Amino acid sequence: MAFEFKNSKGTTYYLHGKNVTLRGGRQQMIYYFAREIKPGAMDEVPAGLKVIETVKTGMPILKKK
Known about the structure:
Strand order of the largest sheet: 1-2-3
Distance between the termini: 23 Å
Largest sheet: 3 strands, antiparallel
Radius of gyration: 13 Å
Structural class: mainly beta
């Protein structure tokens, strides 16, 4: 089951992760929220990170603890 976050406006977002290759060839995991469950959905928030909601738009983002 994908990790879900419901913002103050009542919209539900699901956490996703994806490995990308940077210009130098280094691999890095990026995290993003989507309104529907897509491939790459994650079951929990990665260790050392927490979910907060932006004040202006209500979008969830990950931030270091």
